[in-house]
Structure formats: structure tokens, C-alpha cells
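User: quick one, sequence for these C-alpha cells?
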């Protein structure tokens, strides 16, 4: 939890709140795992809730109604990893127009095919798979990719990686479990967000197959 103190601060409706996380060599740090948080302001001697949020990513912007406060603090109520918050800043912006986020989504039961591979793509017992999920992941949550061979054969999923806007995230945000690749998406999602997952499939028998996408938990 962090607190910002000044003599006073007047927060107007067009306020922009920026929460930035630690970064190093373009690698997303554990603060990327913030799932739920509350921004509070000290008004007339009492802490009052200004805004609730459900994700952060490398940078998060929130805005809220006018209120006079003497301090602002960030309370992280749920996280997938230990957050490392670099800064909490409050700004007044004239004529501020909130950015447009992607439409919300629901958890549906039927998986959706997102890519395929063919036996001709195998080299030295491996095939490289790359899946763009920018149009599939619209909100923060937990998702899974199901790797399905078209014939009965043993496979191994290896070297999973997930990239947000071209930046590789920590390994803990894409984890392999048997024939599934589990994704923990905690970043803020906008219309310009680009999400790509990469992994390799190992098998002694070259074969065709497909990858299906399915939401698991929506925050």
C-alpha cells in the first residue's frame, strides 16, 4: 500500500491516476500481477474510496469525481504475485476524455479454435506455435489454450511465452499443465492491446493438430 501526501489536492472529474510498476530491460516485473486494488483519499480526516480497479499492467490510468483530499493511497487487495509499485501519481487534465476499452466478455463453455499446425511443420521432433489473442482476451482473467493432436500420440508443450505489446511477461503468467497452456491476464485491456502466446510442441510422431481457446475465470 502506498500513500501520496501534499498540503492539499483538489481532484476534479477529469482526473487521471497513473500507477506505474518497476521495469527492467523491457521485462514485465511482478507488479504486473495486481488483480484488485482500491484508491482512497483522505478527506476531512477520513479515508474515502475514490475508485476500485481490477488490473494494472505496466501502467494503469483511472479517473474519478471531484473531491478535496490531503492524501491519496493505493490499497492492493488481491495479487497474483508480489507487486513492486514504482510510483503513484495524481494529475489534473483539462478536457480529459477517457480512453475506450474493449467490450467485456463472458466465460463460455465451448472452446474456440484459434490456430492449427500440420505434420509438415515438425522439425527435429518439434513444431513452433504462435497464437495472437488480441481479439480473444478482452478483460482481465484466467484463460487456457487447449493443444489437441488429431491422432493419439504423446506430446509435450515446452517454452511457453506471452508477450504484451511486444514485451515478454514473466513466466508465471503463462504456465503449462499437461496439454493446456494457462494464461493469467492481469493487464489493462484496450482496443490497441496486442497479446501473443508462443510455445513449442514436442512429439516423436509428426501429426496435425489444433489449438483451442477458452476463458476460465473473469476478474
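Assistant:
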Amino acid at each position: 500500500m502506498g500513500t501520496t501526501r501534499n498540503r492539499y489536492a483538489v481532484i476534479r472529474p477529469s482526473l487521471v491516476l497513473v500507477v506505474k510498476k518497476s521495469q527492467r530491460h523491457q521485462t514485465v516485473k511482478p507488479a504486473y500481477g495486481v488483480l484488485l486494488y482500491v484508491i482512497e483519499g483522505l478527506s476531512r480526516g477520513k479515508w474515502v474510496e475514490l475508485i476500485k480497479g481490477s488490473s494494472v499492467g505496466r501502467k494503469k490510468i483511472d479517473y474519478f469525481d471531484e473531491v478535496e483530499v490531503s492524501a491519496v493511497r493505493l490499497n492492493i487487495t488481491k495479487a497474483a504475485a508480489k507487486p513492486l509499485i514504482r510510483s503513484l501519481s495524481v494529475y489534473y487534465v483539462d478536457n480529459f476524455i477517457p480512453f475506450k476499452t474493449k467490450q467485456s466478455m463472458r466465460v463460455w463453455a465451448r472452446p474456440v479454435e484459434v490456430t492449427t499446425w500440420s505434420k509438415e511443420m515438425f522439425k527435429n521432433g518439434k513444431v513452433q506455435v504462435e497464437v495472437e489473442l488480441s481479439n480473444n482476451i478482452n478483460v482481465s482473467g484466467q484463460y487456457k489454450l487447449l493443444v489437441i493432436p488429431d491422432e493419439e500420440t504423446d506430446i509435450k508443450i515446452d517454452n511457453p511465452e506471452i508477450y504484451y505489446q511486444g514485451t515478454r511477461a514473466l513466466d508465471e503468467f503463462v504456465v503449462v499443465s499437461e496439454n493446456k497452456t494457462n494464461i493469467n491476464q492481469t493487464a489493462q485491456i484496450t482496443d490497441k492491446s496486442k497479446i501473443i502466446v508462443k510455445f513449442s510442441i514436442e512429439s516423436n510422431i509428426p501429426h496435425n493438430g489444433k489449438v483451442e481457446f477458452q476463458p476460465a475465470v473473469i476478474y
